Amino acid sequence: MTVLESLRNRAGLLVSGAASFVVVIGGMRLASGEPLVQPQTDIGVVIGIAMVALYFVITDTRGGGR
User: Fold this and answer.
1) Which has the higher per-residue pLDDT, 50 or 63?
2) CA Rg, the chain, in Å?
3) Rounded CA gap, 37 and 4, in Å?
4) CA separation for the pair 31, 39 (Å, rounded)
5) How far are the Cα atoms of 19, 24, 47 from residue 61, in angstroms, in the given order?
6) Per-residue pLDDT at 32
7) In a 3-state reduction of DSSP, which class is residue 60?
């Protein structure tokens, strides 16, 4: 399996996970009165999503994927 095939197969999971994470963080920030966009913190979210995608790609290309 190639990197592109792996990302294509896991796209739904990655997008739904990222969207739910953004909704939870946004709700918490809204409830506490903090700004919704916080660049220093939000870059960590992007890095985390990229790390999960990298894990999926490594697992799939080694033959452990679907």
Assistant:
1) 50
2) 15
3) 30
4) 19
5) 25, 31, 21
6) 96
7) helix
Question: pLDDT exceeding 70 applies to what percent of the chain?
Answer: 95
Which pTM was predicted? 0.75
CB 44 within 8 A of CB 52: no
Q: What's the burial of 56, exposed, middle or buried (CB within 10 Å: 0-12/13-18/19+)? A: buried
What are 33-52's pLDDT values in tens digits?
999 999 998 999 899 999 99
Nearest by Cα to 53 from 25, 18, 1: 18
* HEC assignment per residue over 5-66: HHHHHHHHHHHHHHHHHHHHHHHHHHHHCCCCCCHHHHHHHHHHHHHHHHHHHHHHHCCCCC
What are 9's two structure tokens? 């197969």
